[in-house]
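Handout, page 2. Input:
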Amino acid sequence: MQQLLLEPGNPYDITKEDLEELRQQLTAQLDAIDVAVAYHPPKGAGVTLDEVLHIWLPGWEFLRDEGYSILLGAAIESMRRRFTRRHGAKRRKVTVIHDPDGGEVETITLQNPDSPPEHESGRPNGNRPRPPSQD
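Output:
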């Protein structure tokens, strides 16, 4: 079974519990895809200007599937809900979609809860290592 990974940029900002609703929603909507939460060990003080969620696609073919549209919609709404949290209400929400090799496919930014998502093409030569699944 193919695996889609949800990885917070900072596990102190976005916890495994915070991602559980998104994981369950995607699991229910994406057939034959295992959705898991993953972490890299945190480094440094963990202070960032943005709340960042990295999403690792299970494979290149996923981009051609309707599952990619489902993923984007669910991720954007999940990050939009984070503006209601007291500690993160004023911070931008950024979702980075990664291909299986670590390249960035797309970056989606929400400036505030009512702003439209800003889509930016990714950098295909990204070098972020794929995290191990922690589920």
